[in-house]
Protein backbone atom coordinates (compact mmCIF):
# COMPACT_ATOMS: atom_id res chain seq x y z
CA UNK A 1 0.00 0.00 0.00
CA UNK A 2 2.81 2.40 0.86
CA UNK A 3 4.46 1.64 -2.44
CA UNK A 4 1.18 2.30 -4.28
CA UNK A 5 0.80 5.68 -2.55
CA UNK A 6 4.43 6.53 -3.25
CA UNK A 7 4.15 5.64 -6.93
CA UNK A 8 0.76 7.32 -7.52
CA UNK A 9 0.73 10.29 -5.14
CA UNK A 10 0.45 12.82 -7.95
CA UNK A 11 -2.56 11.03 -9.51
CA UNK A 12 -4.25 10.82 -6.11
CA UNK A 13 -3.74 14.54 -5.44
CA UNK A 14 -5.10 15.44 -8.90
CA UNK A 15 -8.11 13.12 -8.40
CA UNK A 16 -8.92 14.63 -4.98
CA UNK A 17 -8.52 18.16 -6.39
CA UNK A 18 -10.88 17.35 -9.28
CA UNK A 19 -13.43 15.92 -6.84
CA UNK A 20 -13.25 19.04 -4.65
CA UNK A 21 -13.73 21.32 -7.67
CA UNK A 22 -16.62 19.16 -8.95
CA UNK A 23 -18.40 19.30 -5.57
CA UNK A 24 -17.87 23.07 -5.35
CA UNK A 25 -19.22 23.63 -8.88
CA UNK A 26 -22.15 21.31 -8.21
CA UNK A 27 -23.04 23.27 -5.06
CA UNK A 28 -22.69 26.58 -6.89
CA UNK A 29 -24.92 25.64 -9.82
CA UNK A 30 -27.41 23.37 -8.02
CA UNK A 31 -27.92 25.26 -4.75
CA UNK A 32 -26.39 28.74 -4.61
CA UNK A 33 -27.49 30.17 -7.99
CA UNK A 34 -31.15 29.02 -7.79
CA UNK A 35 -31.43 30.38 -4.25
CA UNK A 36 -29.92 33.72 -5.29
CA UNK A 37 -32.24 33.89 -8.30
CA UNK A 38 -35.27 33.17 -6.12
CA UNK A 39 -34.28 35.90 -3.64
CA UNK A 40 -33.77 38.40 -6.46
CA UNK A 41 -37.16 37.49 -7.95
CA UNK A 42 -38.83 37.90 -4.53
CA UNK A 43 -37.27 41.35 -4.06
CA UNK A 44 -38.41 42.40 -7.55
CA UNK A 45 -41.92 41.14 -6.74
CA UNK A 46 -41.88 43.06 -3.45
CA UNK A 47 -40.84 46.28 -5.23
CA UNK A 48 -43.56 45.81 -7.86
CA UNK A 49 -46.06 45.03 -5.08
CA UNK A 50 -45.19 48.24 -3.25
CA UNK A 51 -45.58 50.30 -6.43
CA UNK A 52 -48.89 48.70 -7.43
CA UNK A 53 -50.16 48.89 -3.86
CA UNK A 54 -49.45 52.61 -3.61
CA UNK A 55 -51.33 53.13 -6.90
CA UNK A 56 -54.35 51.28 -5.51
CA UNK A 57 -54.14 53.20 -2.23
CA UNK A 58 -53.97 56.55 -4.06
CA UNK A 59 -56.96 55.53 -6.21
CA UNK A 60 -58.98 54.63 -3.10
CA UNK A 61 -57.92 57.86 -1.41
CA UNK A 62 -59.05 59.89 -4.44
CA UNK A 63 -62.37 58.04 -4.53
CA UNK A 64 -62.80 58.78 -0.81
CA UNK A 65 -62.14 62.49 -1.43
CA UNK A 66 -64.67 62.52 -4.28
CA UNK A 67 -67.19 60.85 -2.00
CA UNK A 68 -66.50 63.41 0.74
CA UNK A 69 -67.08 66.24 -1.75
CA UNK A 70 -70.44 64.75 -2.77
CA UNK A 71 -71.94 64.37 0.70
CA UNK A 72 -73.48 66.98 2.96
CA UNK A 73 -71.35 69.01 5.35
CA UNK A 74 -72.89 67.24 8.36
CA UNK A 75 -71.91 63.82 7.01
CA UNK A 76 -68.46 65.17 6.18
CA UNK A 77 -67.99 66.26 9.80
CA UNK A 78 -68.68 62.69 10.90
CA UNK A 79 -65.42 61.71 9.26
CA UNK A 80 -63.82 59.01 7.21
CA UNK A 81 -60.21 58.22 7.96
CA UNK A 82 -57.76 56.03 6.05
CA UNK A 83 -54.80 54.58 7.95
CA UNK A 84 -52.30 51.78 8.01
CA UNK A 85 -51.57 50.99 4.42
CA UNK A 86 -49.11 48.12 4.22
CA UNK A 87 -48.06 46.06 1.21
CA UNK A 88 -46.42 42.65 1.09
CA UNK A 89 -45.75 40.13 -1.66
CA UNK A 90 -46.90 36.73 -0.44
CA UNK A 91 -44.80 33.92 -1.96
CA UNK A 92 -47.27 31.16 -1.12
CA UNK A 93 -50.22 32.94 -2.77
CA UNK A 94 -47.98 34.49 -5.45
CA UNK A 95 -49.75 37.81 -5.12
CA UNK A 96 -49.46 41.27 -3.60
CA UNK A 97 -51.41 41.91 -0.41
CA UNK A 98 -52.64 45.27 0.84
CA UNK A 99 -53.60 45.80 4.49
CA UNK A 100 -55.66 48.87 5.22
CA UNK A 101 -57.64 50.41 8.05
CA UNK A 102 -60.71 52.63 7.83
CA UNK A 103 -62.32 54.57 10.65
CA UNK A 104 -65.70 56.26 10.41
CA UNK A 105 -67.63 58.64 12.61
CA UNK A 106 -66.91 61.85 14.49
CA UNK A 107 -65.73 59.94 17.54
CA UNK A 108 -64.60 56.91 15.52
CA UNK A 109 -67.67 54.77 16.04
CA UNK A 110 -66.83 52.21 13.41
CA UNK A 111 -63.53 50.67 12.30
CA UNK A 112 -62.76 48.31 9.47
CA UNK A 113 -59.53 46.42 8.80
CA UNK A 114 -59.05 44.56 5.56
CA UNK A 115 -56.53 42.67 3.49
CA UNK A 116 -57.02 42.59 -0.24
CA UNK A 117 -55.25 41.27 -3.30
CA UNK A 118 -53.76 44.30 -5.07
CA UNK A 119 -53.89 42.70 -8.52
CA UNK A 120 -57.58 41.70 -8.37
CA UNK A 121 -58.75 44.32 -5.83
CA UNK A 122 -60.58 41.47 -4.06
CA UNK A 123 -60.83 41.46 -0.29
CA UNK A 124 -59.32 38.34 1.28
CA UNK A 125 -59.89 39.11 4.94
CA UNK A 126 -62.07 41.70 6.72
CA UNK A 127 -62.59 42.60 10.36
CA UNK A 128 -65.12 45.22 11.42
CA UNK A 129 -66.03 46.55 14.81
CA UNK A 130 -68.24 49.26 16.25
CA UNK A 131 -68.20 51.20 19.48
CA UNK A 132 -70.97 50.57 21.98
CA UNK A 133 -72.72 53.33 23.92
CA UNK A 134 -70.42 52.78 26.92
CA UNK A 135 -67.35 53.33 24.69
CA UNK A 136 -66.15 49.73 24.44
CA UNK A 137 -65.40 48.11 21.10
CA UNK A 138 -67.44 45.06 20.19
CA UNK A 139 -66.37 42.48 17.67
CA UNK A 140 -68.35 42.59 14.51
CA UNK A 141 -67.51 40.22 11.69
CA UNK A 142 -64.95 38.10 13.54
CA UNK A 143 -62.73 37.90 16.58
CA UNK A 144 -59.90 40.46 16.56
CA UNK A 145 -57.36 37.90 17.80
CA UNK A 146 -58.30 35.54 14.96
CA UNK A 147 -57.99 38.39 12.46
CA UNK A 148 -54.52 39.26 13.81
CA UNK A 149 -53.45 35.62 13.56
CA UNK A 150 -54.54 35.41 9.92
CA UNK A 151 -52.92 38.78 9.19
CA UNK A 152 -49.61 37.52 10.64
CA UNK A 153 -49.84 34.38 8.52
CA UNK A 154 -50.64 36.26 5.30
CA UNK A 155 -47.94 38.85 5.86
CA UNK A 156 -45.50 36.13 7.03
CA UNK A 157 -44.70 38.06 10.18
CA UNK A 158 -44.20 35.19 12.61
CA UNK A 159 -42.05 33.17 10.20
CA UNK A 160 -39.74 36.10 9.53
CA UNK A 161 -39.44 36.82 13.28
CA UNK A 162 -38.44 33.20 13.96
CA UNK A 163 -35.69 33.35 11.33
CA UNK A 164 -33.98 36.36 12.93
Give an overview of the whole structure.
The protein is of the alpha+beta class and 164 residues long. The chain has one domain. Helices cover 57% and strands 26% of the residues. It contains 4 helices and 5 strands. Strands 1-2-3-4-5 form a 5-stranded antiparallel β-sheet, with helices on both faces. The longest helix has 69 residues, at 2-70.
Q: Any idea what the shape is?
A: elongated
Radius of gyration: 28 Å
Characterize the biggest β-sheet: 5 strands, antiparallel
Classify the secondary structure makeup into a structural class: alpha+beta
* Percent of sequence in beta strands: 25-35%
Helix and strand element order: HHEEEEEHH
What percent of residues adopt helix (DSSP H or I)? 55-70%
The strand count comes to 5
**Given the structure, what is the number of helices?**
4
Unreliable spans are 159-164
Number of structural units classed as domains: 1
N-end to C-end Cα span: 51 Å
Outline of this structure?
By secondary structure, the chain is α+β, with helices and mostly antiparallel strands. It contains 4 helices and 5 strands, in the order ααβββββαα.
Please describe the topology of this protein:
Layout: H1 2-70, H2 73-78, E1 80-90, E2 95-104, E3 110-117, E4 122-131, E5 137-139, H3 144-154, H4 157-163
Amino acid sequence: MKQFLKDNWFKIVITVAILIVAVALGYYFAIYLPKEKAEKEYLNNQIKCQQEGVKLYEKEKLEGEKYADSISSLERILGYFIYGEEFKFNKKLNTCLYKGERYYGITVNFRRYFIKDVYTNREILVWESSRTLDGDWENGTSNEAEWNKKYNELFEITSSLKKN
